[in-house]
Amino acid sequence: MSDILDAVFFDDSNPEPRCPCVLLLDTSSSMQGASINALNTGLRAFQQAIREDEVTSMRIEIAIVTFNSEVSVVQHFVTADDFNPPTLTTTGSTCMGAGIEKALNLVAERKATYRANGTPHYRPWIFMITDGEATDSVDEARRRIAMEQAGKHSVFFPVGVTNANMAKLRELSSAPEPVKLEGLNFREMFLWLSSSLKALSGSRVGEQVALSPVGWGKV
To answer: Which end of the chain has less neighbouring CB within 10 Å, N or C?
Structure first.
């Protein structure tokens, strides 16, 4: 496993509460071609949309974790105004279990940073996009997701694209249920995500926020 950055930055001069969101992205070989191109286009649309609201840009923190034969943190947490997504490429198999665990660890570490700095935070999001089936064990990942969901500690939102095994994704999460992306609607999906995060960041910490209907896919 490799991380592109050694140090994790936290801006303690920013007085706003934070909402950490990990984009957990499948970059295995099966995503090659149209899928990875559409994913990269969607990430750029997400970058633009998430910056449009000043409050959101200071409250939402984005990290990117990719998984193929390895798991990599290609973007540590930054507020939306500093978010610049890399251009992703594909290779290898689908180490989904390890990817999920890395994302959960990142969230736990970020929450510890918030506590150390006295910074309130919203429930973290892990937004996973995959077109495949795990080539490693997901047993520990499934157990940890269940604990997170039972305690309402974080939101794990899986999205299946192309040939994703939706039955296997449903075994990972039932609340919310996995969504099957229609075609290559990555841009629409990321615009929905940015809208949801904007609504969340505009609420009070701990307040329930109703999400917009998922028009880019189906449950």
So the answer is: C
